[in-house]
Amino acid sequence: MNTFLGILIPFAGTTLGAACVFFLKNEIKPLVQKMLLGFASGVMIAASVWSLLIPSMDMSEHMGKLAFIPAAVGFGLGILFLLAMDRLIPHLHLGCSEPEGKKCSLKKNTMLVLAVTLHNIPEGMAVGVVFAGMLAQNSDISMMGAFALSIGIAIQNFPEGAIISLPLKSEGNTRARAFTMGTLSGIVEPIGALLTILLASYITPVLPYLLSFAAGAMVYVVVEELIPEASEGDHSNIATIGFAVGFVVMMILDVALG
């Protein structure tokens, strides 16, 4: 039961963020959006380090000075996986007029949701892998540590839900439709986490690689999407401040609860 609740926490964050469309009239102000994007970036980078890469290396201590290999290999594969997904799946980033990925006839709104869905994949995978490790009674992953990761991702999912639903509303969609599409952008997270947990018995032997794989995929999203979006327009340090706050919040969560 605890595991089921744990994998739903990030999705709840997205849903609550998307619900902002019922309370806010227009798009989020640019400075606020930059701060939220920076915050999300900080949370994801801290989660990648403390919740994924460090446990990956701790689990490989028996390899001695080569304990970095699973973390390095998995991290690289995670980057390559998201790079491939970015090239294959048609999607449109906020503020951009040209879609990326394979050419298709999908509507703009659909491709906006696909863009958010695409970078939610590694987050769902990260939660699933950590809970799978916890269920396998791995001493390097505790129940509270797994929940810390879920809570951290839920916190950064809140602004993501708002950032996708509010522009959809401003483009002529009803509040209900914008909320639904914003919510659906996060549904891949619990689905991915659940599938990962169901495969736990097969995952355990390669858990260090999968933890770092999820870390690589998350870092790709931050560098390729979140930071560039936070840096668009007039120069401002607000995104940097948001990043610092997000990083510290996730670090505290992981150390205090883990």
Automatic annotation (TrEMBL):
The keyword Transcription does not apply. It is found in: Cell membrane. The chain crosses the membrane at residues 6-24, 36-54, 66-85, 112-135, 141-158, 179-203, 209-227, 239-257. Keywords: Cell membrane, Membrane, Transmembrane, Transmembrane helix, Zinc. It is a multi-pass membrane protein. Belongs to the ZIP transporter (TC 2.A.5) family. This is ZIP family metal transporter. It comes from Blautia celeris.
